[in-house]
Amino acid sequence: KYQGLHYDDLLKTRKGRLSPALTTYYSKPLALHQGHKQWLFDVDGRRYLDMFGGICTVSVGHCHPKITEVVTEQLSTLGHVSNIYLHTKIHEYAEKLTAKLPGELKVVYFVNSGSEANDLAILLARAYTGNFDIISFRNAYHGLTCQVMSLTATSVYRYPVPQSPGFYYAMNPDVYRGIWGGGACRDSPVQTTRTCSCGSQCIAGINYLKQLEEVYQYNIPKGRAAAFFAESIQGVGGTVQYPKNYIKGAFDLIKSYGGLYVADEVQSGFGRTGEHFWGFEMHGVVPDVVTMAKGIGNGFPLAAVVTTPEIAKALTKAQHFNTYGGNPIASAVGIAVLEILEDDDLQENSKQVGTYLLLELEKLRQRFSVIGDVRGKGLMIGVEMVTGDGSTTPLDPGLMLKFWDRCRDLGVLLGKGGYFGNVLRIKPPMCVTKHDADFTIAVIAQALEEIF
Ligand code: PMP
User: Fold this and answer.
1) Per-residue pLDDT tens for 215-267?
2) Would you identify the family this protein belongs to, as annotated (predicted)?
3) Closest ligand 1 atom, residue 294 Cα
4) Dihedral of CA 332/338/341/347: which sign?
5) Is the pLDDT score of 189 beyond 70?
């Protein structure tokens, strides 16, 4: 039984003692007390199906007993020692994590958050190439340290302070909302209902690549780029998928401009997209640097940057240190997550349940005109809500909130994202079942029937 502060006290503390800049979900914020697998319980003991996994973070399920066990054991053996010493866990974890990556991606730096990982990747790219300029997508989210804030390219996260120099933005290759269309050209199971007729080269992809090339041409002399950053599927941006072959083209372009390809796998890594362990694999590229966080630690503050031995050497030009990165507990958690993913066959589950959910959501799209688009891969799903008049005009924010609140009242927690905040983001713990998918569909359908 919950015995902490009363709900009203929580609200008061949040208002007076926590940063006023904090985002709070729902019109009446949810006060959570307990988690179990794909379930969350509020302070009154009410159960919710967590279809957002703490922003795509809880990968193997809330309070997984194996994680509790390894943390308890590690905490009572050697809780913290920083990486200035040898300790078995960080070495074991480095071996196990890098074994999951292809090619020369065999050197890892452990850090504590996705923003830190991307910050380090920027440094690594600049130190290795000797170049400064970096390209990312408009609408991308890569984190919010002062420097990474400039890599993130969405105005809602921009403070009225000078941004870091050396960042350029390419048009977001968004095949639903973008100017060149191409909805049928993305690589996704729901495409069974829409067929791409472009042949081997998708027109939208070619146009977006031309625009990307122009960003280089007008801003960055040949050979002078440091890095191109992209998520394999955009997360916070609203589960945006790119046209087929676009990423391969973007990879070739950054190479021809002398820079590194950095894959931000903070959301799309660790089997979430089902077919592959890493999102970049669906695009047929092997990045120079991979950044990872969230699902890597199932909610534990753990993140990493993996690169090749040659690129890694660039960081020896000065000293680099991180107190907590890969500490014994973090490493023990990281190892446990890798083992659970395998033991519980969660990548395959993501594929099975995710594909089923996508196809069921697609059926809802055909029933309700306010669902403009259903997209994603595995358990990284987006449902874009529109006005329902056949256009892509985003659903009114008030109605979106009403709909979203109603899903929560009916027992399902969903995420929200996209530039207009009109995309439902579905990224549950990867242990969700087909039954949970059915429940989610039933709740969304009921909320849609009631409100629209
Ligand atoms: N990259 C991506 C793709 C993310 O989604 C996020 C977090 N939403 C980050 C980086 C930043 O991670 P963190 O909040 O752990 O700093």
Assistant:
1) 999 999 999 999 999 999 999 999 999 998 899 999 999 999 999 999 999 99
2) Belongs to the class-III pyridoxal-phosphate-dependent aminotransferase family.
3) 15
4) positive
5) no
Predicted pLDDT at 306? 98
- Determine the Cα–Cα distance for residues 442 and 275; give it in Å rounded to an integer: 26
CATH architecture type of domain 7-51+346-451: Alpha-Beta Complex (3.90)
141 CA distance to ligand 1 middle (Å): 7
The reply to whether the predicted model has a pTM over 0.80 is yes
Mark 88-109 as b/e (b = at least 16 C-beta within 10 Å): ebbeebbeebeebbeeebbbbb
Identify the CA nearest to 138 among candidates 179, 110, 108, 174.
Answer: 174
Using the atom order of ligand 1, give the atom closest to the CA of residue 118: 10
Q: How far is CA 248 from the centre of its chain?
A: 20
Regarding the beta carbon of 436 and ligand 1, being less than 6 Å apart is answered no
- Domain boundaries, given as residue ranges, for the chain: 7-51+346-451, 67-343
Structure confidence at residue 1 as a pLDDT band (50, 70, 90): low
The verdict on domain 67-343 having CATH code 3.40.640.10 is: yes
Select from 327, 334, 332 the least CA-distant residue to 81. Answer: 327
